[in-house]
Amino acid sequence: MTNRRTPFGRTLCAMITPFTGAGALDLEGAGRLAARLVAAGCDGLVLNGTTGESPTTTDAEKADLVRAVREAVGDGVPLVAGVGSADTRHTAGLALAAGKAGADGVLVVTPYYSRPPQEAVAAHFREVADASELPVMLYDIPGRTGTRIEPETMIRLAAHPRIVAVKDCSYDFLGTQKVLAETELAYYAGCDEHLLALYAVGAAGCVSTVANAVPGHVAAVLDAFDAADTARAAELQSRLVPLIEATTGADLPGTVTVKALLGGLGLPAGPVRAPLLPAGREAAEKLRARYETLVGGA
């Protein structure tokens, strides 16, 4: 659809960060995984986000990951680097480092734990946007941060020339539609179950966790909608639901479930870092079974 604003592409994957068996950063594996995702349907990647275990990777590892993935996928694939932290100065510094490493944009989450009021939230995002030349994707995920980016705050922030997009995990469909109606912000569904619904009301695309395993299936939902085959798009979304439920609707974090699934498929993944623990056998088997059912019925 030519009227959609897609500053970072349409089908983005919230890529895991592969580690070696010993827990070190696996840059070679990250490059292979990124290349596979792009070849299979992703036209953009989000690195160092929640699914990328950003709370437990160092600043140097974050920059190294961006450089390795940039080398693997070339210059034509948008890379958005997660730079969020609870410290505005630290976040601004991470944004500068991401740009030097080769990122095309930055993903900035609401400051967590301190629970700042909305004026402080807005000031945080503006300061980070002013610190770097990179365009900014706001990350609204109050279930993890404890603080919303309220729709009115989004509308005010849209006036900043470098704040261009939102990764939406707010579970506030009405609020999202209000911001879409009143701004030019490019919305990306951050929850896979909202992929088609948000796209249908004007979102730019998605930042998908389940795309780590089935990038082509995620892209196909949006392809069908763009081809005006809404029945097919709904059918494809429905087929994804069991795997989405097992990946992000379970009691385990998406990082844990995705790494269990990819590891079982022989793809770069490795262990999770503490305090996360690996998925148990039962969860891993359920993931693999639902993956096989989806892929077998494609």
TrEMBL record:
One of its GO terms (molecular function) is 4-hydroxy-tetrahydrodipicolinate synthase activity. One of its GO terms (cellular component) is cytosol. GO terms for biological process: diaminopimelate biosynthetic process; lysine biosynthetic process via diaminopimelate. Keywords: Amino-acid biosynthesis, Cytoplasm, Diaminopimelate biosynthesis, Lyase, Lysine biosynthesis, Schiff base. Pathway: Amino-acid biosynthesis; L-lysine biosynthesis via DAP pathway; (S)-tetrahydrodipicolinate from L-aspartate: step 3/4. The active site is at residues 139, 167. The gene is dapA. Pyruvate binds at residues 51, 207. This is 4-hydroxy-tetrahydrodipicolinate synthase. It catalyses: L-aspartate 4-semialdehyde + pyruvate = (2S,4S)-4-hydroxy-2,3,4,5-tetrahydrodipicolinate + H2O + H(+). It comes from Streptomyces collinus (strain DSM 40733 / Tue 365). Belongs to the DapA family. Catalyzes the condensation of (S)-aspartate-beta-semialdehyde [(S)-ASA] and pyruvate to 4-hydroxy-tetrahydrodipicolinate (HTPA). Its EC number is 4.3.3.7.
